[in-house]
Design brief:
Helix content of chain A: 25-40%
Strand order of the largest sheet of chain B: 1-7-4-5
Shape of chain B: extended
Oligomer: heterodimer
Order of helices and strands of chain B: HHHEEEEEEEHHHHHHHH
Largest interface: A-B, 35 and 21 residues
Number of helices of chain B: 11
CATH superfamily of the largest domain in chain B: MetI-like
Largest sheet of chain B: 4 strands, antiparallel
Number of helices of chain A: 9
Radius of gyration of chain A: 18 Å
Distance between the termini of chain A: 32 Å
Largest sheet of chain A: 6 strands, mixed
Shape of chain A: globular
Order of helices and strands of chain A: EEEHEEHEHHHHEHEHEEH
Radius of gyration of chain B: 32 Å
Structural class of chain A: alpha/beta
Number of domains of chain B: 3
CATH architecture of the largest domain in chain B: Orthogonal Bundle
Strand order of the largest sheet of chain A: 6-7-8-3-9-10
Number of strands of chain A: 10
Helix content of chain B: 55-70%
Number of strands of chain B: 7
Protein backbone atom coordinates (compact mmCIF):
# COMPACT_ATOMS: atom_id res chain seq x y z
CA UNK A 1 0.00 0.00 0.00
CA UNK A 2 1.33 3.41 -0.89
CA UNK A 3 0.15 6.94 -0.18
CA UNK A 4 1.67 9.86 -2.11
CA UNK A 5 1.25 13.56 -1.32
CA UNK A 6 -2.26 12.95 -0.01
CA UNK A 7 -4.10 16.16 0.82
CA UNK A 8 -7.67 16.65 1.92
CA UNK A 9 -9.26 20.05 2.37
CA UNK A 10 -12.86 19.94 3.56
CA UNK A 11 -15.39 22.45 2.26
CA UNK A 12 -15.00 25.29 4.74
CA UNK A 13 -11.24 25.21 4.45
CA UNK A 14 -10.19 22.71 7.13
CA UNK A 15 -6.96 21.10 5.95
CA UNK A 16 -7.35 17.60 7.42
CA UNK A 17 -4.46 16.02 5.55
CA UNK A 18 -1.46 17.94 4.28
CA UNK A 19 0.90 16.23 1.87
CA UNK A 20 0.94 12.83 3.57
CA UNK A 21 3.18 10.17 2.03
CA UNK A 22 4.15 6.72 3.26
CA UNK A 23 4.35 3.14 2.15
CA UNK A 24 3.14 0.03 3.95
CA UNK A 25 4.50 -3.44 3.21
CA UNK A 26 2.29 -6.51 3.16
CA UNK A 27 1.69 -7.93 6.64
CA UNK A 28 2.61 -4.83 8.63
CA UNK A 29 0.57 -3.67 11.64
CA UNK A 30 0.75 0.07 11.29
CA UNK A 31 -0.66 2.19 14.07
CA UNK A 32 -1.63 5.77 13.29
CA UNK A 33 -1.49 8.00 16.35
CA UNK A 34 -2.19 11.64 16.93
CA UNK A 35 -4.56 13.97 18.77
CA UNK A 36 -8.24 14.20 17.96
CA UNK A 37 -8.57 16.17 14.75
CA UNK A 38 -5.07 15.34 13.57
CA UNK A 39 -6.46 13.66 10.43
CA UNK A 40 -6.37 9.97 11.40
CA UNK A 41 -9.97 9.21 10.41
CA UNK A 42 -9.70 11.19 7.19
CA UNK A 43 -6.51 9.32 6.25
CA UNK A 44 -8.16 5.91 6.72
CA UNK A 45 -11.27 6.97 4.79
CA UNK A 46 -9.26 8.30 1.87
CA UNK A 47 -7.79 4.83 1.40
CA UNK A 48 -11.17 3.21 0.59
CA UNK A 49 -12.55 6.52 -0.73
CA UNK A 50 -15.30 6.94 1.84
CA UNK A 51 -13.75 10.40 1.76
CA UNK A 52 -12.65 11.84 -1.60
CA UNK A 53 -9.06 13.16 -1.36
CA UNK A 54 -8.48 16.67 -2.68
CA UNK A 55 -5.16 15.70 -4.26
CA UNK A 56 -2.51 13.02 -4.07
CA UNK A 57 -2.59 9.35 -4.91
CA UNK A 58 -3.27 6.09 -3.11
CA UNK A 59 -2.28 2.60 -4.28
CA UNK A 60 -3.56 -0.58 -2.73
CA UNK A 61 -2.03 -3.83 -3.94
CA UNK A 62 -0.81 -2.26 -7.17
CA UNK A 63 -4.17 -0.61 -7.99
CA UNK A 64 -4.38 3.14 -8.06
CA UNK A 65 -7.39 3.72 -5.83
CA UNK A 66 -7.58 7.43 -6.57
CA UNK A 67 -8.07 6.73 -10.30
CA UNK A 68 -10.94 4.24 -9.94
CA UNK A 69 -14.50 4.81 -11.16
CA UNK A 70 -17.58 3.98 -9.04
CA UNK A 71 -17.59 0.32 -9.96
CA UNK A 72 -13.85 0.10 -9.38
CA UNK A 73 -14.21 1.64 -5.94
CA UNK A 74 -16.87 -0.94 -5.13
CA UNK A 75 -14.54 -3.77 -6.17
CA UNK A 76 -11.71 -2.31 -4.12
CA UNK A 77 -13.88 -1.81 -1.03
CA UNK A 78 -14.96 -5.42 -0.90
CA UNK A 79 -11.32 -6.45 -0.33
CA UNK A 80 -10.67 -3.81 2.32
CA UNK A 81 -12.25 -4.49 5.69
CA UNK A 82 -13.13 -1.60 7.96
CA UNK A 83 -13.71 -1.44 11.70
CA UNK A 84 -15.22 1.64 13.34
CA UNK A 85 -15.05 3.38 16.67
CA UNK A 86 -18.85 3.26 17.07
CA UNK A 87 -18.97 -0.32 15.67
CA UNK A 88 -21.58 0.89 13.14
CA UNK A 89 -23.75 -2.19 13.39
CA UNK A 90 -27.38 -2.03 12.34
CA UNK A 91 -28.80 -2.27 15.84
CA UNK A 92 -32.20 -3.71 14.99
CA UNK A 93 -30.81 -6.55 12.89
CA UNK A 94 -29.57 -9.87 14.25
CA UNK A 95 -25.83 -10.28 14.72
CA UNK A 96 -25.68 -12.86 11.94
CA UNK A 97 -27.21 -10.49 9.36
CA UNK A 98 -24.78 -7.79 10.42
CA UNK A 99 -21.89 -10.18 9.79
CA UNK A 100 -23.35 -11.26 6.45
CA UNK A 101 -23.48 -7.65 5.21
CA UNK A 102 -19.69 -7.92 4.97
CA UNK A 103 -20.29 -10.09 1.89
CA UNK A 104 -22.64 -7.66 0.08
CA UNK A 105 -19.92 -6.61 -2.37
CA UNK A 106 -19.95 -10.14 -3.81
CA UNK A 107 -23.66 -11.03 -3.79
CA UNK A 108 -26.14 -10.11 -6.55
CA UNK A 109 -28.11 -6.99 -5.57
CA UNK A 110 -31.51 -8.62 -6.06
CA UNK A 111 -30.75 -11.11 -3.28
CA UNK A 112 -31.01 -8.14 -0.96
CA UNK A 113 -34.65 -7.55 -1.94
CA UNK A 114 -35.70 -10.85 -0.39
CA UNK A 115 -32.90 -10.96 2.22
CA UNK A 116 -31.55 -14.17 0.69
CA UNK A 117 -28.22 -15.62 1.83
CA UNK A 118 -26.94 -18.96 0.56
CA UNK A 119 -26.28 -21.60 3.26
CA UNK A 120 -22.51 -21.60 2.67
CA UNK A 121 -22.33 -17.86 3.44
CA UNK A 122 -24.34 -18.38 6.63
CA UNK A 123 -21.94 -21.18 7.51
CA UNK A 124 -18.98 -18.86 6.86
CA UNK A 125 -20.56 -16.10 8.96
CA UNK A 126 -21.05 -18.52 11.86
CA UNK A 127 -17.42 -19.65 11.55
CA UNK A 128 -16.27 -16.03 11.69
CA UNK A 129 -18.40 -15.42 14.77
CA UNK A 130 -16.80 -18.54 16.25
CA UNK A 131 -13.36 -17.04 15.63
CA UNK A 132 -14.24 -13.96 17.66
CA UNK A 133 -15.87 -16.11 20.33
CA UNK A 134 -19.54 -15.08 20.04
CA UNK A 135 -21.12 -17.76 17.88
CA UNK A 136 -23.83 -18.21 20.53
CA UNK A 137 -24.97 -14.60 19.92
CA UNK A 138 -25.65 -15.13 16.20
CA UNK A 139 -29.41 -14.73 16.44
CA UNK A 140 -29.47 -12.00 19.06
CA UNK A 141 -30.31 -8.43 18.05
CA UNK A 142 -27.07 -6.47 17.70
CA UNK A 143 -28.06 -3.81 20.26
CA UNK A 144 -28.41 -6.49 22.96
CA UNK A 145 -24.62 -6.99 22.94
CA UNK A 146 -22.00 -5.24 25.07
CA UNK A 147 -19.58 -2.80 23.42
CA UNK A 148 -16.76 -5.32 23.21
CA UNK A 149 -19.06 -7.94 21.72
CA UNK A 150 -20.38 -5.44 19.18
CA UNK A 151 -16.85 -4.63 18.08
CA UNK A 152 -16.14 -8.34 17.67
CA UNK A 153 -19.22 -8.50 15.39
CA UNK A 154 -17.59 -5.63 13.50
CA UNK A 155 -14.42 -7.70 13.11
CA UNK A 156 -16.42 -10.73 11.97
CA UNK A 157 -18.15 -8.52 9.40
CA UNK A 158 -14.76 -7.37 8.09
CA UNK A 159 -13.59 -11.01 8.00
CA UNK A 160 -16.51 -11.93 5.72
CA UNK A 161 -14.81 -9.78 3.09
CA UNK A 162 -11.69 -12.01 3.24
CA UNK A 163 -9.75 -8.76 3.20
CA UNK A 164 -6.15 -8.12 2.23
CA UNK A 165 -6.17 -4.94 4.27
CA UNK A 166 -8.06 -3.91 7.38
CA UNK A 167 -8.64 -0.26 8.21
CA UNK A 168 -9.46 0.17 11.87
CA UNK A 169 -10.64 3.64 12.88
CA UNK A 170 -10.16 3.99 16.64
CA UNK A 171 -11.53 0.48 17.16
CA UNK A 172 -11.21 0.59 20.94
CA UNK A 173 -11.85 4.24 21.76
CA UNK A 174 -15.38 3.42 23.01
CA UNK A 175 -14.26 0.44 25.11
CA UNK A 176 -12.77 -0.04 28.55
CA UNK A 177 -9.06 -1.01 28.81
CA UNK A 178 -9.57 -4.74 29.38
CA UNK A 179 -12.02 -5.04 26.50
CA UNK A 180 -9.69 -2.93 24.35
CA UNK A 181 -6.96 -5.51 24.71
CA UNK A 182 -9.24 -8.43 23.92
CA UNK A 183 -10.48 -6.71 20.75
CA UNK A 184 -7.00 -5.69 19.62
CA UNK A 185 -5.71 -9.20 20.22
CA UNK A 186 -8.22 -10.49 17.64
CA UNK A 187 -6.96 -7.91 15.17
CA UNK A 188 -3.36 -8.82 15.99
CA UNK A 189 -4.12 -12.51 15.44
CA UNK A 190 -5.52 -11.78 11.97
CA UNK A 191 -2.40 -9.80 11.19
CA UNK A 192 -0.01 -12.52 12.40
CA UNK A 193 -1.81 -15.68 11.26
CA UNK A 194 -3.42 -14.55 8.04
CA UNK A 195 -0.92 -11.93 7.04
CA UNK A 196 -3.64 -9.27 6.68
CA UNK A 197 -2.13 -5.81 6.57
CA UNK A 198 -3.59 -3.60 9.30
CA UNK A 199 -3.79 0.17 9.39
CA UNK A 200 -5.18 1.10 12.76
CA UNK A 201 -5.64 4.47 14.40
CA UNK A 202 -5.34 4.57 18.19
CA UNK A 203 -5.46 7.21 20.89
CA UNK A 204 -3.17 5.59 23.42
CA UNK A 205 0.51 5.34 22.76
CA UNK A 206 0.77 2.39 25.15
CA UNK A 207 -1.60 0.41 22.91
CA UNK A 208 0.38 1.50 19.86
CA UNK A 209 3.60 0.24 21.48
CA UNK A 210 2.01 -3.07 22.42
CA UNK A 211 0.39 -3.93 19.05
CA UNK A 212 2.08 -1.92 16.31
CA UNK A 213 5.02 -3.13 14.24
CA UNK A 214 5.30 0.44 13.07
CA UNK A 215 3.87 3.80 14.15
CA UNK A 216 2.92 6.79 12.02
CA UNK A 217 2.13 9.96 13.94
CA UNK A 218 -0.02 12.72 12.51
CA UNK A 219 -0.19 16.28 13.76
CA UNK A 220 -2.46 18.82 12.10
CA UNK A 221 -2.62 16.65 8.99
CA UNK A 222 1.12 16.15 8.60
CA UNK A 223 3.27 13.11 9.27
CA UNK A 224 5.50 14.04 12.22
CA UNK A 225 6.87 10.61 12.95
CA UNK A 226 7.27 7.33 11.06
CA UNK A 227 9.18 4.49 12.68
CA UNK A 228 9.14 1.65 15.16
CA UNK A 229 7.26 2.04 18.46
CA UNK A 230 10.55 1.79 20.39
CA UNK A 231 11.88 4.94 18.72
CA UNK A 232 9.25 7.14 20.37
CA UNK A 233 11.01 8.67 23.35
CA UNK A 234 9.95 11.52 25.61
CA UNK A 235 11.05 14.18 23.12
CA UNK A 236 9.23 12.61 20.19
CA UNK A 237 6.19 12.12 22.40
CA UNK A 238 6.03 15.84 23.16
CA UNK A 239 6.42 16.62 19.46
CA UNK A 240 3.38 14.52 18.64
CA UNK A 241 1.10 15.32 21.50
CA UNK A 242 2.24 18.81 22.55
CA UNK A 243 4.33 20.17 25.40
CA UNK A 244 1.77 19.65 28.16
CA UNK A 245 0.97 16.01 27.42
CA UNK A 246 1.69 13.21 29.85
CA UNK A 247 1.87 9.62 28.70
CA UNK A 248 -0.86 7.47 30.20
CA UNK A 249 -0.32 3.76 30.67
CA UNK A 250 -3.23 1.62 29.72
CA UNK A 251 -3.13 -1.66 31.60
CA UNK B 1 -35.25 55.05 28.94
CA UNK B 2 -35.66 54.40 25.21
CA UNK B 3 -36.50 50.76 25.96
CA UNK B 4 -39.37 51.99 28.11
CA UNK B 5 -40.88 54.00 25.25
CA UNK B 6 -40.58 51.09 22.84
CA UNK B 7 -42.34 48.85 25.34
CA UNK B 8 -45.09 51.45 25.86
CA UNK B 9 -45.63 51.84 22.11
CA UNK B 10 -45.71 48.06 21.73
CA UNK B 11 -48.32 47.80 24.44
CA UNK B 12 -50.48 50.49 22.78
CA UNK B 13 -50.17 48.69 19.45
CA UNK B 14 -51.21 45.38 20.98
CA UNK B 15 -54.20 47.03 22.68
CA UNK B 16 -55.21 48.68 19.41
CA UNK B 17 -54.99 45.38 17.54
CA UNK B 18 -57.09 43.69 20.19
CA UNK B 19 -59.77 46.40 20.12
CA UNK B 20 -59.95 46.30 16.34
CA UNK B 21 -60.18 42.51 16.39
CA UNK B 22 -63.00 42.69 18.93
CA UNK B 23 -64.95 45.01 16.66
CA UNK B 24 -64.48 43.27 13.29
CA UNK B 25 -65.29 39.81 14.60
CA UNK B 26 -68.49 41.10 16.18
CA UNK B 27 -67.81 39.77 19.63
CA UNK B 28 -70.91 40.29 21.76
CA UNK B 29 -70.75 38.44 25.05
CA UNK B 30 -74.34 39.38 25.96
CA UNK B 31 -75.63 37.17 23.18
CA UNK B 32 -74.01 34.17 24.80
CA UNK B 33 -76.19 34.72 27.83
CA UNK B 34 -79.45 36.11 26.38
CA UNK B 35 -79.77 33.60 23.54
CA UNK B 36 -78.97 30.53 25.58
CA UNK B 37 -82.55 29.31 25.15
CA UNK B 38 -81.98 28.89 21.40
CA UNK B 39 -79.62 25.99 21.85
CA UNK B 40 -81.44 24.38 24.76
CA UNK B 41 -83.40 21.89 22.59
CA UNK B 42 -80.23 21.12 20.71
CA UNK B 43 -78.28 20.39 23.87
CA UNK B 44 -81.20 18.40 25.24
CA UNK B 45 -81.26 16.23 22.13
CA UNK B 46 -77.51 15.85 22.10
CA UNK B 47 -77.55 14.11 25.47
CA UNK B 48 -80.23 11.64 24.36
CA UNK B 49 -79.08 10.10 21.11
CA UNK B 50 -81.22 7.50 19.37
CA UNK B 51 -79.59 4.29 20.41
CA UNK B 52 -82.49 2.01 21.30
CA UNK B 53 -86.12 2.42 20.35
CA UNK B 54 -89.25 1.01 21.93
CA UNK B 55 -91.35 -0.88 19.40
CA UNK B 56 -94.27 -3.29 19.67
CA UNK B 57 -93.33 -6.94 19.65
CA UNK B 58 -94.54 -8.53 16.40
CA UNK B 59 -95.55 -11.87 14.94
CA UNK B 60 -94.24 -12.52 11.45
CA UNK B 61 -94.99 -14.97 8.67
CA UNK B 62 -94.52 -14.99 4.92
CA UNK B 63 -95.46 -17.01 1.88
CA UNK B 64 -93.32 -17.05 -1.29
CA UNK B 65 -94.91 -17.10 -4.74
CA UNK B 66 -93.58 -17.35 -8.30
CA UNK B 67 -94.37 -15.32 -11.41
CA UNK B 68 -94.06 -17.65 -14.37
CA UNK B 69 -91.53 -19.88 -12.61
CA UNK B 70 -91.91 -23.05 -10.55
CA UNK B 71 -93.17 -22.06 -7.09
CA UNK B 72 -90.47 -21.95 -4.40
CA UNK B 73 -90.70 -24.25 -1.37
CA UNK B 74 -92.82 -23.12 1.54
CA UNK B 75 -91.04 -22.03 4.71
CA UNK B 76 -91.21 -24.46 7.62
CA UNK B 77 -94.26 -23.27 9.50
CA UNK B 78 -94.16 -22.99 13.27
CA UNK B 79 -96.55 -20.72 15.08
CA UNK B 80 -98.38 -18.24 12.84
CA UNK B 81 -98.94 -19.30 9.25
CA UNK B 82 -100.07 -17.66 5.97
CA UNK B 83 -101.51 -19.38 2.92
CA UNK B 84 -102.20 -18.01 -0.50
CA UNK B 85 -104.93 -19.13 -2.92
CA UNK B 86 -102.46 -19.60 -5.76
CA UNK B 87 -98.65 -19.90 -5.53
CA UNK B 88 -98.16 -19.31 -9.25
CA UNK B 89 -99.26 -15.76 -9.95
CA UNK B 90 -99.22 -12.95 -12.54
CA UNK B 91 -98.82 -9.24 -12.01
CA UNK B 92 -102.23 -7.72 -11.31
CA UNK B 93 -103.81 -11.04 -10.37
CA UNK B 94 -106.12 -11.04 -7.34
CA UNK B 95 -105.28 -13.63 -4.70
CA UNK B 96 -106.66 -14.45 -1.27
CA UNK B 97 -104.39 -14.59 1.77
CA UNK B 98 -105.46 -16.62 4.77
CA UNK B 99 -103.63 -16.52 8.06
CA UNK B 100 -103.98 -18.37 11.34
CA UNK B 101 -102.20 -18.78 14.64
CA UNK B 102 -101.81 -15.01 15.18
CA UNK B 103 -102.80 -13.08 18.30
CA UNK B 104 -106.54 -12.35 18.34
CA UNK B 105 -107.92 -8.91 17.51
CA UNK B 106 -104.61 -7.25 16.73
CA UNK B 107 -103.77 -4.96 13.80
CA UNK B 108 -101.56 -6.38 11.03
CA UNK B 109 -100.01 -5.40 7.71
CA UNK B 110 -99.27 -7.17 4.46
CA UNK B 111 -96.15 -6.15 2.57
CA UNK B 112 -95.02 -7.43 -0.85
CA UNK B 113 -91.31 -7.98 -1.33
CA UNK B 114 -89.91 -8.80 -4.75
CA UNK B 115 -86.55 -10.44 -5.51
CA UNK B 116 -84.68 -7.21 -4.62
CA UNK B 117 -86.29 -7.18 -1.19
CA UNK B 118 -87.83 -3.73 -1.67
CA UNK B 119 -91.01 -3.53 0.41
CA UNK B 120 -94.39 -2.50 -1.11
CA UNK B 121 -97.23 -2.11 1.45
CA UNK B 122 -100.39 -3.84 0.22
CA UNK B 123 -103.04 -3.85 2.94
CA UNK B 124 -103.86 -3.60 6.63
CA UNK B 125 -106.22 -5.79 8.60
CA UNK B 126 -107.30 -6.88 12.08
CA UNK B 127 -107.26 -10.51 13.19
CA UNK B 128 -110.50 -12.11 14.43
CA UNK B 129 -111.14 -13.51 17.90
CA UNK B 130 -109.43 -16.77 16.94
CA UNK B 131 -106.32 -15.04 15.58
CA UNK B 132 -107.19 -15.58 11.88
CA UNK B 133 -107.64 -13.27 8.93
CA UNK B 134 -108.69 -13.52 5.28
CA UNK B 135 -107.79 -10.83 2.79
CA UNK B 136 -107.94 -10.27 -0.97
CA UNK B 137 -104.92 -8.50 -2.50
CA UNK B 138 -103.53 -7.87 -5.98
CA UNK B 139 -99.99 -8.77 -6.99
CA UNK B 140 -98.30 -5.41 -7.59
CA UNK B 141 -95.97 -4.47 -10.46
CA UNK B 142 -92.77 -6.26 -9.71
CA UNK B 143 -89.26 -7.10 -10.92
CA UNK B 144 -88.06 -10.67 -11.37
CA UNK B 145 -89.94 -13.95 -11.32
CA UNK B 146 -90.31 -14.29 -7.58
CA UNK B 147 -91.86 -12.49 -4.63
CA UNK B 148 -93.39 -13.04 -1.23
CA UNK B 149 -96.25 -11.75 0.91
CA UNK B 150 -94.95 -10.76 4.35
CA UNK B 151 -97.42 -10.48 7.17
CA UNK B 152 -96.70 -8.70 10.45
CA UNK B 153 -99.12 -8.56 13.36
CA UNK B 154 -98.18 -6.29 16.24
CA UNK B 155 -98.68 -7.48 19.81
CA UNK B 156 -99.77 -5.37 22.78
CA UNK B 157 -96.43 -5.69 24.62
CA UNK B 158 -93.50 -3.44 23.71
CA UNK B 159 -89.84 -4.32 23.30
CA UNK B 160 -86.45 -2.59 22.86
CA UNK B 161 -84.31 -2.88 19.80
CA UNK B 162 -81.37 -0.97 18.32
CA UNK B 163 -82.67 2.00 16.43
CA UNK B 164 -82.65 2.33 12.66
CA UNK B 165 -80.49 5.44 13.18
CA UNK B 166 -77.91 3.50 15.18
CA UNK B 167 -77.68 0.84 12.48
CA UNK B 168 -77.27 3.47 9.78
CA UNK B 169 -74.69 5.34 11.84
CA UNK B 170 -72.76 2.13 12.51
CA UNK B 171 -72.77 1.29 8.82
CA UNK B 172 -71.44 4.74 7.92
CA UNK B 173 -68.91 4.61 10.73
CA UNK B 174 -67.48 1.40 9.31
CA UNK B 175 -67.41 3.11 5.92
CA UNK B 176 -65.57 6.03 7.50
CA UNK B 177 -62.91 3.86 9.13
CA UNK B 178 -62.29 2.08 5.85
CA UNK B 179 -62.33 5.35 3.95
CA UNK B 180 -59.55 6.51 6.23
CA UNK B 181 -57.73 3.21 5.82
CA UNK B 182 -57.85 3.35 2.02
CA UNK B 183 -56.76 6.99 2.05
CA UNK B 184 -53.84 6.09 4.31
CA UNK B 185 -52.93 3.10 2.13
CA UNK B 186 -52.90 5.33 -0.93
CA UNK B 187 -50.72 7.76 0.98
CA UNK B 188 -48.23 5.04 1.96
CA UNK B 189 -47.91 3.67 -1.58
CA UNK B 190 -46.79 7.02 -2.96
CA UNK B 191 -45.12 8.47 0.12
CA UNK B 192 -42.57 5.66 0.56
CA UNK B 193 -40.78 6.14 -2.77
CA UNK B 194 -41.12 9.94 -2.54
CA UNK B 195 -39.62 9.96 0.95
CA UNK B 196 -36.47 8.19 -0.23
CA UNK B 197 -36.09 10.70 -3.05
CA UNK B 198 -36.77 13.53 -0.61
CA UNK B 199 -34.21 12.53 2.03
CA UNK B 200 -31.17 14.77 1.96
CA UNK B 201 -28.76 12.20 3.38
CA UNK B 202 -29.50 9.81 0.50
CA UNK B 203 -29.19 12.47 -2.18
CA UNK B 204 -25.82 12.20 -3.91
CA UNK B 205 -24.45 14.50 -6.58
CA UNK B 206 -26.24 17.25 -8.52
CA UNK B 207 -28.91 14.88 -9.93
CA UNK B 208 -29.69 13.53 -6.48
CA UNK B 209 -29.99 17.03 -5.06
CA UNK B 210 -32.27 18.11 -7.92
CA UNK B 211 -34.53 15.11 -7.32
CA UNK B 212 -34.46 15.88 -3.59
CA UNK B 213 -35.51 19.47 -4.23
CA UNK B 214 -38.25 18.46 -6.66
CA UNK B 215 -39.80 15.85 -4.36
CA UNK B 216 -39.65 18.19 -1.37
CA UNK B 217 -41.42 20.86 -3.41
CA UNK B 218 -44.14 18.44 -4.52
CA UNK B 219 -44.68 17.32 -0.93
CA UNK B 220 -44.83 20.91 0.35
CA UNK B 221 -47.30 22.02 -2.32
CA UNK B 222 -49.64 19.09 -1.72
CA UNK B 223 -49.45 19.50 2.03
CA UNK B 224 -50.44 23.14 1.86
CA UNK B 225 -53.79 22.27 0.26
CA UNK B 226 -56.39 21.55 2.92
CA UNK B 227 -58.04 18.11 2.65
CA UNK B 228 -61.40 19.88 2.89
CA UNK B 229 -60.67 21.72 -0.33
CA UNK B 230 -59.32 18.57 -1.96
CA UNK B 231 -62.54 16.76 -1.01
CA UNK B 232 -64.65 19.48 -2.59
CA UNK B 233 -62.64 19.20 -5.79
CA UNK B 234 -62.79 15.40 -5.86
CA UNK B 235 -66.53 15.40 -5.08
CA UNK B 236 -67.00 17.38 -8.29
CA UNK B 237 -64.56 15.15 -10.14
CA UNK B 238 -65.65 11.63 -9.16
CA UNK B 239 -69.02 12.42 -7.58
CA UNK B 240 -70.16 12.80 -3.99
CA UNK B 241 -69.32 9.72 -1.97
CA UNK B 242 -66.61 7.89 -0.07
CA UNK B 243 -64.35 7.57 -3.12
CA UNK B 244 -63.97 11.37 -3.25
CA UNK B 245 -63.03 11.20 0.44
CA UNK B 246 -60.46 8.46 -0.20
CA UNK B 247 -58.80 10.55 -2.91
CA UNK B 248 -58.77 13.70 -0.77
CA UNK B 249 -57.29 11.94 2.24
CA UNK B 250 -54.93 9.99 0.00
CA UNK B 251 -53.41 13.05 -1.63
CA UNK B 252 -53.06 14.80 1.71
CA UNK B 253 -51.56 11.67 3.29
CA UNK B 254 -48.96 11.35 0.53
CA UNK B 255 -47.75 14.82 1.39
CA UNK B 256 -47.73 14.56 5.16
CA UNK B 257 -46.45 10.98 5.33
CA UNK B 258 -43.81 11.76 2.71
CA UNK B 259 -42.47 14.57 4.87
CA UNK B 260 -42.54 12.51 8.08
CA UNK B 261 -40.93 9.52 6.38
CA UNK B 262 -38.15 11.54 4.79
CA UNK B 263 -37.43 13.22 8.11
CA UNK B 264 -37.22 9.77 9.70
CA UNK B 265 -34.75 8.76 7.00
CA UNK B 266 -32.72 11.91 7.57
CA UNK B 267 -32.55 11.20 11.30
CA UNK B 268 -30.99 7.74 10.95
CA UNK B 269 -27.53 6.88 12.23
CA UNK B 270 -25.07 7.39 9.34
CA UNK B 271 -22.59 4.92 10.87
CA UNK B 272 -24.18 1.71 9.56
CA UNK B 273 -24.54 3.29 6.11
CA UNK B 274 -20.84 4.07 6.07
CA UNK B 275 -20.02 0.56 7.28
CA UNK B 276 -22.15 -1.17 4.65
CA UNK B 277 -20.82 1.15 1.93
CA UNK B 278 -17.31 0.23 3.03
CA UNK B 279 -17.98 -3.44 2.27
CA UNK B 280 -18.47 -2.60 -1.41
CA UNK B 281 -22.27 -2.80 -1.32
CA UNK B 282 -24.35 -1.19 -4.07
CA UNK B 283 -26.84 1.61 -3.37
CA UNK B 284 -29.76 -0.78 -3.31
CA UNK B 285 -27.98 -3.03 -0.84
CA UNK B 286 -27.08 -0.07 1.36
CA UNK B 287 -30.72 1.01 1.46
CA UNK B 288 -31.90 -2.53 2.18
CA UNK B 289 -29.41 -3.34 4.94
CA UNK B 290 -28.48 -0.01 6.49
CA UNK B 291 -31.44 2.32 5.91
CA UNK B 292 -34.62 0.22 5.97
CA UNK B 293 -33.95 -1.63 9.25
CA UNK B 294 -33.48 1.72 10.93
CA UNK B 295 -36.70 3.32 9.68
CA UNK B 296 -39.28 0.53 9.79
CA UNK B 297 -40.50 1.22 13.35
CA UNK B 298 -40.95 4.94 12.68
CA UNK B 299 -42.70 4.25 9.38
CA UNK B 300 -45.18 1.95 11.13
CA UNK B 301 -45.76 4.44 13.91
CA UNK B 302 -46.31 7.35 11.51
CA UNK B 303 -48.66 5.30 9.35
CA UNK B 304 -50.87 4.29 12.25
CA UNK B 305 -50.87 7.85 13.51
CA UNK B 306 -51.91 9.03 10.04
CA UNK B 307 -54.77 6.53 9.93
CA UNK B 308 -55.92 7.86 13.29
CA UNK B 309 -55.85 11.44 11.98
CA UNK B 310 -57.57 10.38 8.77
CA UNK B 311 -60.49 8.83 10.67
CA UNK B 312 -60.89 12.16 12.45
CA UNK B 313 -60.59 14.13 9.22
CA UNK B 314 -62.94 11.91 7.23
CA UNK B 315 -65.82 12.93 9.49
CA UNK B 316 -65.32 16.54 8.42
CA UNK B 317 -64.62 15.61 4.82
CA UNK B 318 -68.07 14.02 4.66
CA UNK B 319 -69.58 17.50 5.11
CA UNK B 320 -68.31 18.57 1.70
CA UNK B 321 -69.32 15.39 -0.09
CA UNK B 322 -66.58 12.99 0.88
CA UNK B 323 -68.96 10.26 2.06
CA UNK B 324 -68.87 8.37 5.33
CA UNK B 325 -70.41 9.41 8.62
CA UNK B 326 -69.81 13.10 8.02
CA UNK B 327 -72.17 13.11 5.06
CA UNK B 328 -74.89 11.46 7.15
CA UNK B 329 -74.31 13.88 10.02
CA UNK B 330 -74.61 16.85 7.70
CA UNK B 331 -77.94 15.52 6.37
CA UNK B 332 -79.27 15.11 9.92
CA UNK B 333 -78.17 18.61 10.85
CA UNK B 334 -79.73 20.15 7.73
CA UNK B 335 -83.01 18.40 8.49
CA UNK B 336 -82.76 19.54 12.15
CA UNK B 337 -82.89 15.91 13.31
CA UNK B 338 -80.89 16.65 16.41
CA UNK B 339 -81.36 13.33 18.14
CA UNK B 340 -80.14 11.47 15.08
CA UNK B 341 -77.29 13.95 14.72
CA UNK B 342 -76.43 13.29 18.36
CA UNK B 343 -76.18 9.57 17.63
CA UNK B 344 -73.67 10.29 14.87
CA UNK B 345 -71.71 12.75 17.03
CA UNK B 346 -71.43 10.23 19.86
CA UNK B 347 -70.38 7.50 17.46
CA UNK B 348 -67.66 9.75 16.02
CA UNK B 349 -66.43 10.70 19.48
CA UNK B 350 -66.32 7.08 20.56
CA UNK B 351 -64.54 5.76 17.48
CA UNK B 352 -62.02 8.63 17.39
CA UNK B 353 -61.21 8.14 21.08
CA UNK B 354 -60.84 4.42 20.52
CA UNK B 355 -58.57 4.90 17.49
CA UNK B 356 -56.54 7.41 19.44
CA UNK B 357 -56.06 4.95 22.29
CA UNK B 358 -55.27 1.98 20.05
CA UNK B 359 -52.83 3.88 17.85
CA UNK B 360 -50.99 5.15 20.93
CA UNK B 361 -50.77 1.57 22.24
CA UNK B 362 -49.46 0.18 18.97
CA UNK B 363 -46.97 3.01 18.54
CA UNK B 364 -45.67 2.40 22.05
CA UNK B 365 -44.99 -1.20 21.16
CA UNK B 366 -43.21 -0.75 17.83
CA UNK B 367 -40.89 2.13 18.68
Amino acid sequence: MRVEHLTKVYPGGVRALDDVSFEVARGEFVVVIGLSGSGKSTLLRCINRLVEPTSGRVWVDGVEVTALDREGVRRLRREVGMIFQQFNLVKRMPVLTNVLTGRLGYTPPWWALVNYWPPELIEQALRNLERVGIRDKAYVRADQLSGGQQQRVGIARALMQEPKLILADEPVASLDPATSHSVLRYVEELNRKEGITVLCSLHFLSLARRYGTRVIALKEGRVVFDGTPAEIDARRFREIYGEDAVEVEIA
Amino acid sequence: MRGGWVRFAGLLLALGAFAYGWRVTGIDLREVATNAHLIRPLVRDLVRPEVLERVPRVQEAHVPVALGAPPPPLPAARGPRVEVSSRSVRVGEAVVLRGEGFAPQRPGRVVWRDATGAPAPLAEFTTDTLGRFELAVRVPDTLGDRGAFHVTVSLPEMTWRTSETLRLVAERMVETVFLALMGTAMGVVFAVPLSFLGAKNLAHGPVGLAVYGASRTVLNVFRSVEPLILATVFAVWVGIGPFAGVLALGVHSVASLGKLYSEAIEAIDPGPIEAVEATGASRLQVVRYAVIPQIVPQFIAFTIYRWDINVRMSTVIGFVGGGGIGFLLMQYINLLLWQKAATAVWAITLVVALMDYLSAKVRERVV
